Amino acid sequence: MENPFEPGGFTLRINQKTDMRYTFSICATISNKEYQITRLFMAFAQELIDTLKRELRTRRVTYAEIARELQLSESSIKRLFSEGDMSLSRLETICALVELDIAQLATRTTEQRRHVHTLTREQEETLVGDEKLLLLTVHLIYGWSYARVMAIYDIDPHQGQRMLVQLDRMQIIELLPENRVRIRLSPDFQWLPDGPIQHFFEREVQSDFFSSNFTGDGELRLVMNGWMSLHGIRAFHENMRRLAKEFDLQIKSDRHVPVEERRGTTMVVAVRPWSLEMFEKHVRK
Q1: Which residue has the higher pLDDT, 187 or 239?
Q2: Would you state the torsion angle of the CA atoms of residues 59, 116, 195, 267, taken in this order, to the nearest 10 degrees?
Q3: What is the pLDDT of residue 113?
Q4: Which of 73, 139, 228, 273 could join 232 via S-S bond, C-beta 3.0 to 4.6 A?
Q5: What DSSP character marks residue 39?
Q6: What does pTM read for this prediction?
Q7: Beta-bridge partner residues of 185
Q8: Beta bridge mates, 24
Q9: What is the pLDDT of residue 114?
Q10: Distance between CA atoms of residues 119 and 139, nearest Å
């Protein structure tokens, strides 16, 4: 069915799926910004409001401030949040109070569902043992659609469908209608230390990655040497972790850029107490 919401503002379309779940699509033009939000309807609207409440509490924005901004009574604001029933224009205004837009709020809401922090050793072994399954997993994790993976890589459609179901059962993705996926790995997801994926990297990827002179477009290699205390090394580890977070933030920032304009990019940051073997052999015994 189709319902008009705010004349000239937007329309809401709701379609019932055979699995008793609903999808909704909101098409809107607000303040010269166009939003198309398509998500599973079940519970998502309330999750959106819950995320907004958390952001408001973090920024210490009160209902009274929201009421002044929307020119409503404080009791009306409380009712809007309790019922979860507000227009997109009001939602956008409230988002602006915490320096978010609706798309960013939806992204943060989705990320709240991502709760898998590590895989089991058996799950990592499954990925490493199937080249195409690993290929599909890595590309989905880093923002590719299933349709684009299938268009670029030589994967049989039936095999691709089986792999999607397998990844859903492994809780790496949530498989949605029309082969859309939602990643279930948390933002701080890590591969197992000394696990199958790390061993795979050391065995298959590391030498390939470093077989470059790092002078190409977008390439950079920095090698630094010096003498440092163990205390200094451990302190420097925190700087490396911050750099890793900056890398992750840049990845997220570029998600709005079309996939064909992005490149698979790897950053390896490593430090350890170490000296060249050719020097060590000259140390006095």
Answers
A1: 239
A2: -40
A3: 64
A4: 228
A5: E
A6: 0.58
A7: 116
A8: 14, 39
A9: 64
A10: 17
Map residue 15 onto helix, strand or coil. Answer: strand
At 127, list the tokens. 């990925």
SS3 270: coil
Tokens of 213: 């002179």
The most confident of the ranges 73-77, 85-89, 156-160 is: 156-160
Whole-angstrom Cα distance, residue 137 to residue 135? 6
User: Any idea what DSSP says for residue 259?
Assistant: G
**SS3 at position 173:** strand
Coil vs helix vs strand at 14 = strand
Q: Residue 89: which of 102, 108, 106 has the closest Cα?
A: 102
| Farthest-apart Cα atoms in the chain, separation | 87
Q: How far apart are CA 187 and CA 180, in angstroms?
A: 20
**What does residue 33 show for φ and ψ, rounded to 5 degrees?**
-115, 130
Measured in residues, the chain has a length of 285
